């Protein structure tokens, strides 16, 4: 369970990025974050991973105050999370397998075990044959699937994805979202920010952010516009 209690965030010298946000996302839920550029979506996701900390208010993950976790406790938190964030591009000078193995190696796994699990993760995202490829030789959609494999290789409880389908064509975007939905059906809580109305209109839960304030639901466009 992810809980935000009256969370505000103000970066130095900027307008507030989040304003008094209170919400709860249940374990096993699939929640989308929507809202215009700059509305606070990335900031909200980063708070759950303690990459950013609240200026005021509390963020809880399974009852633990994430904002209060000390530096040395962060690896333990991050092991519960699968992060697909905009800053975390693939390492272009390492092959696909090495990229997916990385979180396990950092966590101290034996290389043979990391190799085995990374290959299994690549199979889960439909790329079992690309282990030896360099990321640059992959399409944008395939690179994003590698990023998903890297995010799930350690079997996280929660996936946080920041615009995972940005810059992808419709088919690739559907494939990437379908993968995330598969993990959600297998019990993983997913919080996904997106601008993609195609997904939002069919989502069971949408948290809409505007100027850092959160509300629930997605305003469907008029029916005539939908049909066009
Ligand atoms: N590290 C930072 N330092 C200063 N201001 C920041 C920082 N990160 C975000 N902001 C500001 O906080 C606000 C919210 O940004 P955020 O990236 O969370 O929005 P977003 O909804 O994810 O936008 P986008 O859809 O463009 O990714 C914006 O005004 C942004 O400029």
UniProtKB/TrEMBL annotation:
Pfam family, one: ABC_tran
The ABC transporter domain, residue ranges: 2-228
GO biological-process terms attached to the record: amino acid transport
Keyword Membrane among UniProt keywords: yes
GO-annotated molecular function: ATP binding; ATP hydrolysis activity; transmembrane transporter activity
Cellular component per GO, a single term: plasma membrane
Signal peptide residues on this chain, from the entry's feature table: none
Entry keywords, A to Z: Amino-acid transport, ATP-binding, Cell membrane, Membrane, Nucleotide-binding, Translocase, Transport
ATP-binding recorded as keyword: yes
The family this protein is said to belong to: Belongs to the ABC transporter superfamily.
Main function: Part of the ABC transporter FtsEX involved in cellular division. Important for assembly or stability of the septal ring.
Name of the molecule in the record: Cell division ATP-binding protein FtsE
Organism of derivation: Noviherbaspirillum pedocola
């Amino acid at each position: 369970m992810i809980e935000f209690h009256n969370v505000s965030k103000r970066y130095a010298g900027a307008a507030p990025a989040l304003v008094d946000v209170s919400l709860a996302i249940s374990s096993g839920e699939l929640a989308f974050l929507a809202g215009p550029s700059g509305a606070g979506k990335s900031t909200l996701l980063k708070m759950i991973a303690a990459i950013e900390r609240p200026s005021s208010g509390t963020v809880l993950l399974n009852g633990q105050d994430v904002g209060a976790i000390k530096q040395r406790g962060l690896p333990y938190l991050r092991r519960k999370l699968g992060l697909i964030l905009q800053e975390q591009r693939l390492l272009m000078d390492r092959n696909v397998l090495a990229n997916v193995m990385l979180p396990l190696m950092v966590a101290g796994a034996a290389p043979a075990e990391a190799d085995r699990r990374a290959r299994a993760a690549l199979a889960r995202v439909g790329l079992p044959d690309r282990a030896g490829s360099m990321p640059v030789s992959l399409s944008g959609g395939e690179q994003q699937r590698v990023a998903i494999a890297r995010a799930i290789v350690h079997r996280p409880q929660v996936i946080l994805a920041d615009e995972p389908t940005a810059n992808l064509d419709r088919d690739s975007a559907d494939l990437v979202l379908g993968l995330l939905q598969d993990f959600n059906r297998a019990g993983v809580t997913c919080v996904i920010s997106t601008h993609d109305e195609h997904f939002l209109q069919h989502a069971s839960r949408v948290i809409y952010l505007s100027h850092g304030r959160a509300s629930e639901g997605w305003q469907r466009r008029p029916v005539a516009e939908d049909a066009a």
